[in-house]
Amino acid sequence: MMADPDDRLIDSLYEAAADPERYDALMDAWGTLLEQELAQDDDRPPVLPERLERHFQFAEAIMARMGKDTGAPDDPMEELERDPGPAMLVSASGILIALNRAARSAFGNLAGQDISHLCMEPRSLGALRQALKMPSLNEPVSRLAGMAWDRDGDRQYLLFYCTLGDGNTSSAAGKLVAAGLNWDESTASQLGALFELTPAEMAIARGWIEGQTLAEMAEEKHRSLQTLRTQAKSLLRKTGQRSQLDLVRLIAGMALATGNRAVPERPDHGDDSMLFDLPDGRCMHVAFAGPLTGAPMVLMHGMLSGNELSLAASSALEALNLRLIMPWRPSYAESSPHTGKAAMAPYRHARDVAVLLDYLGHDGAIIAGQASGFMYAACFAGLYPHKVRKLVGIASGVPIATKAQIRDMPPRQRFVAYTARHLPKILPVLLKAGIAQIASNGIDSFIDALYPEGTIDGAVSRRADIRDIMRRAYRATTRQGHAGFEIEMWHAVRDWSDLLVGCKVPFTLIHGQRDGVVRIDHVRDLCERTEGANLIEIPASGQLVLHDDPVRVLSLIMADGTEAITMEGPAASQVHAVTQKPVS
């Protein structure tokens, strides 16, 4: 059993639960206890003292009550802008306080106007005014507010009124969320599967959504009106709805729940990001960089690295004619939350990326992973080898199979990795406390603890331009809280080398020799025992090699082989390649 903790750890645990600035003190105290376990040679999991486990449980409950479960800002105005569909903040007196971009496009810039400026039926408008006057409850509540037309009178929306709860400190009483009454294929597929509808019943549902009557549908399809009435009754019976309006509300509500609030349009790939609708109703946030006609390269992000690029990296993409496609995994940025078992996360994301590439019209692409993202890249290569032109890892993580590998990490990463491997019940508390520090003014302290002064990565992370990039990336990756990180750590501290063995696709790892998180000797060992591995070592770089020297890294990726790499100046002597035997 682990040694009984001293009062310093207990005190710092509760202090960190209430004050994000105390996160460093908590990690120091927790680390002191863990170092005793790490010093032991055996790899047996420790047993947490019951008293300490109860304290962690109490601290986690405090964090949940105080809203430390998420890294997202609590400001309703900021949340409004992140909403992918039309949404509006409204006061108790019925004044529209603010509208997000989608709402302004649909209804016009009505900020400061009364809700009567929305094209709603008088009965719905009156019911909404009554709802606004109701006292706020402890928990947010959603209710149907009625129908509204867009400003051109061409499209109808179903409005839902959502209260903000008693933690709301803004002048808004609640939020109006609009679900477009359009036929969305992903929502339609869920409707058909859920209620076992026939193609004829699905056609009637679509016709109603698009505003057709049964008589119009009968004429269009050259069917008898009586046949369509029979099918319509069957449709309502199967879905449990009493009327056409109830069914329309059901479909709009399903679209709202799955995030499909607008007509899906093929995006202009000149934009730097998009929300991509997946077949099962989830959405995937995807960022882009580089020339539109460049060679496609999928870059899978690390746990905290995100998809932020420096100006030097953006210039290198243009020079190399390389187009980056950067999908956010579930529970990161604005992608839908992860559901299901953690073990299946890499496979599900691989399938999502395959659908995305098909949608974008790419038969194949360079598949790259940064840090922990390389495991996801390897999984993709195993499932879809025909879509992989190259498989690359940048400062990639390696499978962790021993306590010795954890001991070689820097202190902060070492303590989190050991907790994830042996004490996973404790991990959420550490993750939530760390995310709370990021969400507060302590983000620089968080970064400095990961990359201390006196290290190559510490110097890179303290460059003004790189620090700004890291701040944005950390805030984006933690926006949805700790769930994504918990899944990442579940995989990171396990031996996932079977993904490399099973993929049968040669791969190249580009790794800094001074990476303090994933030591170069562990990377060499992986390459020496894995068929088809090629290692390119960069002596003067660490884990932040892509930020430190993006031109070199991207040039190495685009080169046909290590013998074809051309560099000028000192960099030419700073690349060391070790090529292993090819895949048989």
Could you please describe the fold and organization of this structure?
Helices cover about 45% and strands about 15% of the residues. It has about 575 residues and is α/β, with parallel strands linked by helices. It has four domains: about 5-65 and about 410-450, no CATH class; about 75-180, Beta-Lactamase, CATH 3.30.450.20; about 185-260, Winged helix-like DNA-binding domain superfamily/Winged helix DNA-binding domain (Arc Repressor Mutant, subunit A), CATH 1.10.10; about 280-405 and about 490-580, Rossmann fold (3-Layer(aba) Sandwich), CATH 3.40.50.1820. Strands 7-8-10-9-11-12-13-14-15 form a nine-stranded mixed β-sheet, sandwiched between helices. Helix 13 (about 345-360) crosses helix 14 (about 375-385) and helix 17 crosses helix 18. The longest helix has 16 residues, at about 25-40. The two termini are about 45 Å apart. It comes from Zhengella mangrovi. This is HTH luxR-type domain-containing protein. GO terms for molecular function: DNA binding. InterPro entries: AB_hydrolase, AB_hydrolase_1, AB_hydrolase_fold, Sig_transdc_resp-reg_C-effctor, Tscrpt_reg_LuxR_C, WH-like_DNA-bd_sf.
